[in-house]
């Protein structure tokens, strides 16, 4: 069963109330747009049939007008031959054709009124359809925004993040243990003797002397 029963229901519809009462606003707005599009197609098809009927009626009126002219000529011919009876009969046929033509003109006028009403309905339906599509875009944007916020919250506070940080803690503890082992190796080592310290100084002096010699040779080469 459709949401609306006729064009006027759509025109008078309050989308805000419909969406507020809906359990699934996105689904509701899709249904509304679908029914409005179907109704718009039906109204346009009806207007097209009315226009086609009017064209056919105008062709019939043109034929009836020519027929009246023909009966007039025939009545004049009959009178010229002193056949008043035939002239009267011809004029009666002319009146019948004229009556049919007038009836068709009146029907065309009724259809004109219906077409104007259909034109107004089409304009209103298009306006409501634009409004519904705007609402649909707004609802879709809100849903996407809410989904993005949910994903971000899950990213920041979800179990995967907690698991990752717990792994960081494990790595930090391993690094602390490795550093502790390195520090422990130096614990209890015997202090350097006087000779060892003097030997280190001599080694430093030798390295420094060689370094100075290299600098002097580079300056001389330049």
Explain what the structure shows.
InterPro entries: Phageshock_PspA, PspA_VIPP1. Keywords: Coiled coil. Belongs to the PspA/Vipp/IM30 family. This is Phage shock protein A @ Suppressor of sigma54-dependent transcription, PspA-like. It is a single chain. The protein is rod-shaped, with a radius of gyration of 50 Å. The mean pLDDT is 80. Helix content is 89%, strand content 0%. The chain starts with 6 loop residues before the first helix and ends with a helix. It has two domains: 7-157; 161-220, no CATH class. The protein contains six helices and no strands. The chain is mostly helical and 222 residues long.
Rg over C-alpha atoms, rounded to the nearest angstrom: 50 Å
Largest sheet, in brief, is: none
**Tally of DSSP β-strands:** 0
User: What's the number of domains?
Assistant: 2
Quaternary state reads single chain
Low-confidence stretches: none
Family: Belongs to the PspA/Vipp/IM30 family.
Keywords: Coiled coil
Protein name: Phage shock protein A @ Suppressor of sigma54-dependent transcription, PspA-like
InterPro entries: Phageshock_PspA (IPR014319), PspA_VIPP1 (IPR007157)
């Amino acid at each position: 069963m459709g949401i609306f029963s006729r064009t006027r229901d759509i025109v008078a519809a309050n989308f805000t109330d419909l969406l507020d009462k809906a359990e699934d606003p996105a689904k509701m707005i899709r249904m509304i747009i679908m029914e409005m599009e179907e109704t718009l197609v039906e109204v346009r098809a009806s207007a097209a049939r009315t226009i086609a009927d009017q064209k056919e009626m105008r062709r019939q009126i043109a034929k009836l007008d020519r027929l009246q002219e023909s009966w007039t000529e025939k009545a004049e011919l009959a009178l010229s031959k002193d056949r008043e009876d035939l002239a009267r009969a011809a004029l009666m046929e002319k009146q019948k054709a004229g009556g049919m033509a007038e009836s068709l003109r009146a029907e065309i006028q009724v259809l004109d009124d219906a077409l104007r009403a259909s034109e107004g309905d089409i304009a209103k339906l298009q306006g409501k359809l634009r409004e519904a599509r705007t609402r649909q875009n707004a609802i879709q944007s809100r849903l996407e925004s809410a989904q993005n916020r949910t994903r971000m919250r899950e990213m920041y506070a979800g179990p995967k993040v907690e698991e990752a940080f717990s792994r960081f803690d494990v790595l930090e503890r391993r690094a602390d243990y490795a550093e502790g082992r390195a520090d422990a190796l130096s614990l209890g080592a015997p202090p350097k003797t006087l000779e060892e310290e003097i030997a280190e100084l001599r080694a430093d002096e030798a390295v420094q002397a060689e370094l100075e010699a290299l600098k002097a040779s580079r300056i001389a080469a330049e």
